[in-house]
Amino acid sequence: MQFIPFSYVRSSDMDIHQLQCVIEIVHCGSFTKAAATLHITRPTIS
């Protein structure tokens, strides 16, 4: 996994839903599991 420095992510570029998705992806370790946990489709999360 490639690290993206925080300076590339501005607060105005990310809403709370996107932040929840990122946190869940990291927690679950995969896009598919994160999407299932959040009850959304996989293409929506990626």
Automatic annotation (TrEMBL):
The HTH lysR-type domain, residue ranges: 14-46
MF (Gene Ontology): DNA-binding transcription factor activity
InterPro entries the record matches: LysR_HTH_N, WH-like_DNA-bd_sf, WH_DNA-bd_sf
Signal peptide limits: none
Alphabetized Gene3D superfamilies for the sequence: Winged helix-like DNA-binding domain superfamily/Winged helix DNA-binding domain
Superkingdom of this protein's organism: Bacteria
Name of this chain's protein: LysR family transcriptional regulator
